[in-house]
Amino acid sequence: MRYYFFAVLILNLSLALASPRLAAQQGTPLPAHASAASTSAVSAQAVSAQAPATESAAALSLERLREMALEKSPALRSAMLETDSTVLAEKIRSQELLPSISVRGGVGASYAIAGAAQASVTASVGVSETIYDGGKHRVLAQIDALSTLSARNAAKSAYFSALRSVDSAYYDYLEAEASVEAARADVQAAALRLELAKAKAEAGRASRTDLLQADALAATKETALSQATKVRAVARARLVALAGIAPAAAIAKVDFSAYERLVAAIAALSEAQVEAFADRAVSLSRTGNLPLAAAAIARERAEKEAELAKLTNAPNVSASFSYGLGYGVAAGLDLGTPSLSLSATLAIAPWSAAATSKKADIAVSRAFLAQAEIQSSQDLAVRETIYGLCAAARALGSSALSLDYSNGNYEGVLERFKRSVASSTELSEAEALASGARKGLIGARYALLRLASELSLAAGMEDEGLLARLLP
Q: What distances in angstroms separate CA 6 from CA 1, 35, 37, 162, 370, one per listed residue?
């Protein structure tokens, strides 16, 4: 796991240092850090990627699941290898202007019509180097550096993608587990109702229709429990596949009471405060937004390729030096003569050069448009996440109140039903209200967690105090 933590730290530093102009062109700097909690989840105090969890010694927390998913991720390993490859390509490019040295040697023999064979030995050495290429090598080296920067950004994207996937799988599983528990509560309520209906029918205080209705309701709830169990099995299988955990491993649950104060603060925001909250989140997300960084790199690469296109017909000047000597049986030693040459090459094709340059300029314009579009869409996505987060916080409070009321209402109606004061219809309505409230609270809780996780990862961060700092 440490390998990935330090790898991401290096990636962040590289993104900040390798191309400082990108940040200025975006209006905000590229990420210059990786959080010290690169493999930890955001705490529940921030209601983010990792909410506080109550876990036994054997239960796996979200933090541990993240570590395991990163260690297992083939996409991340592939991205790291691609980064290594681009670094090597950049190094090879930097060595292209170094002198090229060649050495030759040969042995020969000649035969005259009359006389003995004449043997000879030759050896030569040559050195050549490009002196001037019009700046093409400089621009190509800059393009290679941008390729390395792009690969590092892609590796960081793979890192956060792996975190996003395991976060989603973790919350899906916990929500499915909570849904199974809610379905069991519905089954128990339906079983109790059926038992009461049978007792009333035996006493002659309930009709056969009431008994059949209670029996049908119990069967329906059993079916719902079976479906919820299957959904949980699928969610667990996904978590097992992502993190490589044992199928029977215990998963730590979320302690929702630990962040009630923060949720209440978010729910109490006025409309103006929500907009200020969203503005801060958008501003912060630009700092580490990976798609936006990729767009900035692509734009600068297009600019460099346009610059290279204008150098197509630039002259190449190279120098070479060679020296050879030989030895023959008859002629003896031949020290040879050193040779120094200077050559220049000029490609003259103004018609194709102009078209190539124009095409490259068009690519630059398209890259600018793509960057602006990505920034707009990413800003909108972050803003929508904040709106959804505030709505989920408000829904969480109302759902909790609704559950308290519906549970109390159900208990009251159930007691009246036992005394034959309430009808079976009233009990059905009370059961449906309580069941819906349970489902609503579960949905609001995990919607909040998913949105908070998405917000932190969209900004390329794992900051435990993120939401608390963003609040106006």
A: 9, 11, 11, 16, 31
Residue 60 per-residue DSSP state: B
Report d(CA 65, CA 162) in Å as an integer.
Answer: 11
Question: Distance between CA atoms of 324 and 335, rounded to whole angstroms?
Answer: 7
Contact, 105 vs 123, CB < 8 A? yes
Which of 445, 387, 351 minimizes the C-alpha distance to 51? 445
Band (pLDDT 50/70/90 cuts) for residue 222 is very high
Q: What residues make up the domain containing 162?
A: 2-470
Tell me the average pLDDT of the chain: 82
Cβ proximity of 471 and 452 under 8 Å: no
Tokens coding 87: 């670094």
CB 319 within 8 A of CB 131: yes
| Ramachandran class of 460: left when φ > 0, alpha when ψ lies in -120 to 50, beta otherwise | left
Number of domains in the chain: 1
Domain with residue 325: its CATH number is: 1.20.1600.10
Phi, psi of 39 (to 5 degrees): -115, 20
pLDDT of residue 4: 39
Region label for 176, one of left (φ > 0), alpha (ψ between -120 and 50) or beta (otherwise): alpha
Strand ranges (E), 111-156:
118-132
Q: How many CB atoms lie within 10 A of CB 380?
A: 11
Beta strands in 350-410 (DSSP E): none
Model confidence at 116, pLDDT cuts 50, 70, 90, reads low
Cβ contact 318:343 at 8 Å: yes
Taking phi over 0 as left and psi of -120 to 50 as alpha, with beta for the rest, 286 belongs to: alpha
| Contact (Cβ atoms closer than 8 angstroms) between residue 295 and residue 374 | yes
What is the reported pTM? Answer: 0.75
148 Cβ contact list (under 8 Å, min separation 6): 14, 18, 83, 86, 87, 89, 90
Q: Rounded to a whole number, what is the largest CA-CA distance in the chain?
A: 139
What is the per-residue pLDDT for 1? 40
Residue 423's CB is within 10 A of a number of other CB atoms, namely 13
Q: Give the model's pLDDT for residue 284.
A: 84
453 contacts 164 by C-beta, under 8 angstroms:
yes
How is residue 312 written in tokens? 């197509």
Amino acid at 234: V
Which helix or strand (DSSP H or E) is residue 28 part of? none
**What is the C-alpha radius of gyration for the chain, rounded to an integer number of angstroms?**
36
Phi and psi torsions of 279, nearest 5°:
-60, -40
